[in-house]
Amino acid sequence: MLNIQIEKTNQPKQKPEPEELVFGAVFTDHMFVMDYEISQGWHNPKIVPYQPITLEPSAMVFHYGQEMFEGMKAYKGVDGRVLLFRPEKNIERTNKTNDRICIPQIDEDDMLQAIKALVDIDKDWIPNAGGTALYIRPFIIATDPYLGVRPSNTYKFMVIACPVGAYYKEGINPVKIWVETEYVRAVPGGVGEAKTGGNYAASIKAQMKAKERGYTQVLWLDGVERKYVEEVGTMNVFFKINGEIITPELTGSILAGVTRNSVIELLNAWGERVVERRITIDEIYEAHKAGILEEVFGTGTAAVISPVGELNYRGDMITINNNEIGALSQKIYDTITGLQTGAIKDEFGWTVEV
Amino acid sequence: MLNIQIEKTNQPKQKPEPEELVFGAVFTDHMFVMDYEISQGWHNPKIVPYQPITLEPSAMVFHYGQEMFEGMKAYKGVDGRVLLFRPEKNIERTNKTNDRICIPQIDEDDMLQAIKALVDIDKDWIPNAGGTALYIRPFIIATDPYLGVRPSNTYKFMVIACPVGAYYKEGINPVKIWVETEYVRAVPGGVGEAKTGGNYAASIKAQMKAKERGYTQVLWLDGVERKYVEEVGTMNVFFKINGEIITPELTGSILAGVTRNSVIELLNAWGERVVERRITIDEIYEAHKAGILEEVFGTGTAAVISPVGELNYRGDMITINNNEIGALSQKIYDTITGLQTGAIKDEFGWTVEV
Ligand SMILES: Cc1ncc(COP(=O)(O)O)c(C=O)c1O
Ligand SMILES: Cc1ncc(COP(=O)(O)O)c(C=O)c1O
């Protein structure tokens, strides 16, 4: 158990109107901070008013990118309870990321306690309207004031949070996706399965290229053979082909999404055929040609389910399911969002009350 | 021309004794800072006392690793002049990195002016003793207080500097190098040729693994076929085989080192046979077996030349040149360090006076 010191703000901020909520730009009144030093381990846990942080210009995070983050949401349940969705999954992934980039492990119970404490103190910030939530961002940065490549000896673990609006304001619109053939996100042996800043910096250029061409996001192919499908932007991806649901297996270069895992477990519970395996972009195009590519959708914390309406691979554009959300995608979306807000009874034990 | 506002420190720090100099831990009295905003471009250039910086916890650099850095040195010349070594190369590379990770370009003359201005104001910090120098660290960080993957709209460009001791205190000792087969640094299509934090965070784990086994650094193999030699830690690498000097060609996943380029130009000027091509680790081991692997050395700003005395590839250890520095390595080292300090007349136009 952490002994969290709490300093409450005496200048609470104005909360944004529900219809003004944008993603990731407005933060709640408080933040959680905890420090790490080799001799003391993680120590000095506290909740303080949301405020800037001060670091040496030589802090290693600025130079060598030794940093990690997580992303999850708290929902105002239909009955007024505050619910987290599978936080233990994000916490487990935190330590996997930490291991890969040599950040010290963090106690799982302590991390959950920190998240709950922050959500609790800022619970009035959780919006009520359908589809809204409080986005929670735990992150760790390397703070040693030292120029040289090695693990830092000091770190800061922080949790900040922002109220976010409904991802889909007018029904779920399928997105147009650009299949990227020039740039690569990750390869086995690299850090693709870790949630660390460098993966995202590396992805921006392809994303801009897709945007310029009128596409919402990039579909990444594997970096070795350049033909296996990996992820879509910051989402995992699923294909429904001839009644079977396929998602790329976790080969070391793909982030193990919490939503991905939830979708697989849900489909299994429904008795659907789900396969985790490598799948080439050619196979997807062939399925389309054969008329058996039924649905394509991305999965992630932000949108939960994001149907793909169009793919562009080397100029070859295909439209999926008439550019409409598929029945299965809709059912998964309704079920997961229902579970997250407590509208549907949670038989999986996925929701955790704050 | 930048109009640099200068605020001098009124509390100059104690300079470390020459024999106490360590790399990257002590910083000079001042730092250069310049901001970027879309509407103003790079603006507000200033030199201020070296001090911490304050950022929002949501600053993009902490989450998405949109950051870059450079590394170069200023030398106190034999005649008292202060010399930079090919700064235009680092500046050119800055903009290449910026392009890859969507940081706005920086004017080349402005960047040189900023570096010169900082070195000039802190010139008393440049140590005198042989082998010492002032290490200069320009870097850029993304500062938008925003959680979402896209290029930042605001940045900070900074230059900090630290006096560094002689890399080799008792003659040049060859290093033991671990050939890494599990982890990968970069692949074509990724960010390996950019000097961005994520590459370094990704490299720490393999480096620790090598250290634990008693090796100084890692030799990276390519991430696609896992057989071509790429780099050694934060150095490029050269092999002398049967009189011919070979260095991996720049295929997109290798950093284009300034020292690498200088070594190639020097060897060309000397009429040596230098080849930039892909080379497998097997070819190197075969050359050793045939008795024609004459020298192996790394090249980089920190050590200039670092001879490799031993390689370990899958448990197969080979000793190179009797674990002694080779004649060619020594000659290159003496020439480049001689040029850098002005001890050797610069016929290449490589040195730039501050
Ligand atoms: C690269 C990447 N892939 C997939 C995901 C989806 O993961 P999750 O479902 O845990 O949000 C994310 C977002 O976290 C991501 O950043
Ligand atoms: C990955 C990497 N390779 C090679 C080098 C050598 O480059 P340079 O000679 O410009 O110092 C460096 C250091 O800058 C580096 O970080």
UniProtKB/TrEMBL annotation, chains A, B:
Q: Which InterPro entries match?
A: Aminotrans_IV, Aminotrans_IV_CS, Aminotransferase-like, B_amino_transII, BCAT-like_C, BCAT-like_N, BCAT_family
Which GO molecular function annotations are given, in alphabetical order?
L-isoleucine-2-oxoglutarate transaminase activity; L-leucine-2-oxoglutarate transaminase activity; L-valine-2-oxoglutarate transaminase activity
Enzyme class comes to: transferase
Pathway where this protein functions? Amino-acid biosynthesis; L-leucine biosynthesis; L-leucine from 3-methyl-2-oxobutanoate: step 4/4; Amino-acid biosynthesis; L-valine biosynthesis; L-valine from pyruvate: step 4/4; Amino-acid biosynthesis; L-isoleucine biosynthesis; L-isoleucine from 2-oxobutanoate: step 4/4
Please give the catalytic activity noted in the UniProt record: L-valine + 2-oxoglutarate = 3-methyl-2-oxobutanoate + L-glutamate; L-isoleucine + 2-oxoglutarate = (S)-3-methyl-2-oxopentanoate + L-glutamate; L-leucine + 2-oxoglutarate = 4-methyl-2-oxopentanoate + L-glutamate
Q: Which residues carry this modification: N6-(pyridoxal phosphate)lysine?
A: 195
Gene Ontology biological process: isoleucine biosynthetic process; L-leucine biosynthetic process; L-valine biosynthetic process
Question: Does the keyword Hydrolase feature in the UniProt annotation?
Answer: no
UniProt-listed Enzyme Commission number(s): 2.6.1.42
Coiled-coil boundaries: none
- Which family is annotated? Belongs to the class-IV pyridoxal-phosphate-dependent aminotransferase family.
Family matches, as PANTHER family: BRANCHED-CHAIN-AMINO-ACID AMINOTRANSFERASE, SUBGROUP IIII AMINOTRANSFERASE
Supply the name of the protein.
Branched-chain-amino-acid aminotransferase
Which organism does this sequence originate in? Natranaerovirga pectinivora
